[in-house]
Structure formats: C-alpha cells, structure tokens
Amino acid sequence: MTTEYHNPVMLAECIDGLALKPGGVYVDVTFGGGGHSRAILDALQPDTKGQAGKLLVFDQDPDARTNAAAIDDPRLTFIAANFRNLKRYLRLYGVRQVDGILADLGISSHQIDTPERGFSTRFEADLDMRMNQQGDLTAKQVVNSYPEPDLHRILGMYGELTNARTAAAALVSARANQSIQTINDLKEALKRCAPRGKENKYFAQVFQALRIEVNDELKVLEEFLEQTPDVLAPGGRLVVMSYHSLEDRLVKNFINKGKFSGEVEKDLYGNEIKPLQSITRKPVEASADEVARNPRARSAKLRIAEKK
Description:
The chain is of the alpha/beta class. It has helices spanning 11-18, 35-43, 62-69, 86-92, 109-113, 139-145, 148-157, 164-177, 183-190, 199-215, 217-231, 245-257, 288-293, and strands at 25-28, 54-58, 76-79, 98-104, 232-242, 276-278, 301-307.
C-alpha cells in the first residue's frame, strides 16, 4: 500500500527541523503513507530498558491506518482522528507535552491518484473530495446546494479565482437544468469561464476551493496551530509544510505573531507576547533536483518554529 503514496517532500529538511532527541516524544499529524514517520522512527532510540523514543501519528483516512499497521514498531501509536483534535487525543493517550510536531498539509498523491475519491481533474468520478470518508459534506453537495453568494465566496477566497462571481453564476445556471454529479459535469458547467490555454490551472483552483470547503481545511489548520504552544515542551519544535498561499499565510502569522491577523501584542515593557520563535526567517523550499524528481514539491513551503 505505501508504494502508492507520494515520496515525502523535503524529508531531510523536515527531520533536521524537528531537531530530534533519541528519547523524545514526537507527533506526525499527517501520517499518510508514513514516509516522514518512518524517518522519525529511524532517528529515535530503540525500545530498550523503557527509554525508547515515542511517535504518535494522526490520520483520518482509512488507507493511512492500513499503512500504519504495516509498521511493526511498539514506539508507534496510530490515532484515527483529525489533527484539529490534537490536544484531546494526546491526553487520551497520557501525553501532555511533546518534543516536536510535524504537519505535512494538503492532499497526498495517493488520494489524488485514486479516481473514486474525486480529488483529481484527470479522472471522471463522482464529486466527493472528502479526506475523511465518514464525513457528511461532499463536493457534489456544495456545488448543487450552496447559494450563489456562498459559491462566489469560496471560489474567490479559497480558489483565488479572478472571475469567481461569474463561475458561481455558471454553476447555479447549470444545476438548474441538471444536477452536477461528476467531475466532467463540473468542468462542462465552467468551461466558458476557464481562460483559453489555462484550463488545467483554472480547474485546479476550482478543485482546491471545493476541497478546502468540504474538509474545512483552513479552520482545521487554525485550531491545530492554536493548540501547538500548549502541547510543545519548552524547546520543542513545530515543523509545518504547506502547499498554497492561504495555508502558508496562517502558519507564518501564527509563528510570527501568535495569532492569524493584526499586529503582535506586547506586554507593559514592550516585549512581544508570542509563544513560538521562528527558526526559519523565510520558508524553506525544495531544491531544483527534488522538484525534478517530485513535482509535488514545487509549491511546498516549510516553516519551523520553537517553543520558547
């Protein structure tokens, strides 16, 4: 199963960023195919005399659970949950603080390359896009039931479409005649909106918008980031890799300001009140060699912070 997953993006940079301690406790909140997690386990102390390092991993995708089961290692604990519930689940497992947290955001190549999941513009399939297949909301429901102003909002805000209003109107017009059930239905409804010669990029933006809405991705990221200062031990590292500007902006602001908008707050003495210290002044990006080997790395931005 793991061979179907993507090669981990910026693997060495992520592992370096965590500054792993052999006996430390770490969390990978986006387990996926387990590429990053395997590298973390390789760096942790083996299970001898009760001094082993520990790795807890989160993923809501059933395929990821199968991949975790294939790793026969007592130091690994798989948690079948969304990482927006980070603190609650760690406490259920008796963990109060950890030495490092890794988040590789976005969608895995495995999910994109599984046609029936409905994530890719390359395949014909039902409009699904749920990362958690037990979730209630699908992309089909969004395009067929959302009012036009809401479609305008998510296409503009999450897809960053310059003609979001026109695209929303086109979807409402198309569904009035026949419900939009499949990926091809969606592309047909929006074909007049896509700039000539840039159709693939346009539909990728539309899919990004729908996927973010279906999975509540930006709210999930905010809730996760807000919990990290409580979960990290002093000196613990937060390593986050994002794949589009909306995610990266949230990560950057939280690390630099301790919040998602506005200016950093200061105490009576003018000291900044923020729980994390940025380790990377600018985001780390993949090398040209890695991008050539793994196109998914092209848009990746890695930020690293440390708990004060």
